[in-house]
Amino acid sequence: MKSNLKIGIALSGGGVRGISHLGVLEGLNDAGIFPTKVSGTSAGAIVGAMYCKGYRPKEILKIIVETNYFKFMRPAISLTGILKMKSVGDLFKLYLKDDCFSDLETPLTVAATDIKKGKVVYFSEGNLIDPILASSCIPGMFDPIVIDQKYYVDGGVLNNLPVEPLEGICDFVIGVNCNHLPEESNIRNMKSLIERSVIMSMNYNVYSRKSKCDFFIEAEGLGKYGVFDIKKAQELFQAGYDRVSQFIDENPAILELATKEKKK
């Protein structure tokens, strides 16, 4: 039966653009496609954790919109970051109370970067919240997260589309990127130059893994949104959802992954 297929979904990082992942998941679920394993980096790790816990995409969107994320941040008295990511853990504890990978309804792997060893580390067991914080820890902006005396920063530094934990385990892998860059005829200032350069680097990281995916979903133009542009949450969600509808029209073979009965 189709429902016995092992379907993996890898979710990229991308700040607030990661909200589009929720629209993608909603669209896939509406089509009867449900992952049996999820992997994620940064925003993809956050979305993945909430989804794998059992929250539905629209529930997660509501939580994000109604939560003042920034009130949980604290200044860092440090040379390695201007904010403490660790304090955001209190927010995650409201929704991930058990703080354990084993408590999730769907298996999840989170990618982070060991900044001292310069390598990707994948977390899939033990405590959940610290690896999520580590995976989302933008270098320079946040102090590194310390886990077992090792220092971790954003997983997207080395792997912004962690398909590797799904390889050899899943029958099909769906990669989802939320950072597609529109063409730009005029770079307005240094800020836009730096932001565009960073996203280009992130996308090179993602596209190098595109061939590992059986299906690759990418809503166009999301790179135009700022990394903290939370006011665009609904717009980002809709962009992800609409892209799935278009993708199914263009790639009807993906419906072979659908279950015969939609989950509730």
> Which class best fits the helix and strand makeup?
alpha/beta
CATH architecture: 3-Layer(aba) Sandwich
- DSSP strand count: 11
- The share of residues in helices is 25-40%
Q: What overall form do the CA principal axes indicate?
A: globular
Tell me the name of the CATH class: Alpha Beta
Main sheet attributes: strand count, strand direction, barrel closure: 8 strands, mixed
The amount of beta strand, in percent, is 15-25%
Per CATH, the superfamily is Cytosolic phospholipase A2 catalytic domain
Order of helices and strands: EHEHHEEHEEHEEEEHEH
Contiguous uncertain segments of 5+ residues: none
- Ends distance: 19 Å
The DSSP helix count reads: 7
At the fold tier of CATH, the topology name is Cytosolic phospholipase A2 catalytic domain
Indicate the radius of gyration in whole angstroms.
17 Å
Q: What's the domain count?
A: 1
Mean pLDDT over all positions: 90
GO biological process, one term: lipid catabolic process
Keywords: Hydrolase, Lipid degradation, Lipid metabolism
InterPro entries: Acyl_Trfase/lysoPLipase (IPR016035), NTE (IPR050301), PNPLA_dom (IPR002641)
Protein name: Phospholipase family protein
